[in-house]
Amino acid sequence: MVTRMKILIVEDDLEAAAYLAKAFREAGIVSDHARDGESGLFMASENAYDVLVVDRMLPRRDGLSLITELRRRDIHTPVLILSALGQVDDRVTGLRAGGDDYLPKPYAFNELLARVEVLGRRKGAPEQDMVYRVGDLELDRLAHSVRRQGKEIPLQPREFRLLEYLMKNAGQVVTRTMLLENVWDYHFDPQTNVIDVHVSRLRSKIEKDFDVPLLRTVRGAGYMIKDDRTET
Length: 232
Description:
Elements: E1 5-10, H1 14-26, E2 29-34, H2 37-46, E3 51-55, H3 63-72, E4 79-83, H4 88-96, E5 101-104, H5 109-120, E6 131-134, E7 137-140, E8 145-148, E9 151-152, H6 157-168, E10 174-175, H7 176-182, H8 194-207, E11 215-218, E12 222-225
């Protein structure tokens, strides 16, 4: 029996989703449910899951598009695709889109459970990439936590994504366009001060009560997170 595993079921058929949730619960697995592709993308981006079980045919955003976008965002949670499309070409397409496994419908739950268990033992990304550090600031992607000098700093989901992207690119200038595309998923400039507001709030949270500033504004270019004390 698998314990303490947490998965996300992305399935628009409510009866099928309820059946899976019940079966997983009986197997000791905690599950959340998203009923369309957009909701699944949001939940998978904002929360830590061991495995995603994704139906291929979904409203608002299809399963393959969901997976492709997650991989583009550098989210490597293992994905098991469920689909009535079970031909070889269909399975190949699903795996090439970023899926880790593909199970055609109808399926036996025991087989599905076994595949989920295997995927759950995989690491979604190299261990060194699960924790980002800049000076005494630490962001744990798996635990979805931020600490500085051992003190936990609570962040809103968007603030967390913003800090994660900045720390991933520590020491480099991150432009407004890069933030719009990778944190807000905008492929155009909405001409608002949303970035400035979030950066200001983030700076206040990670620098308040600490002596060394880390997040700086690079005039005319963008933003950079950096600890000058680590330079040689």
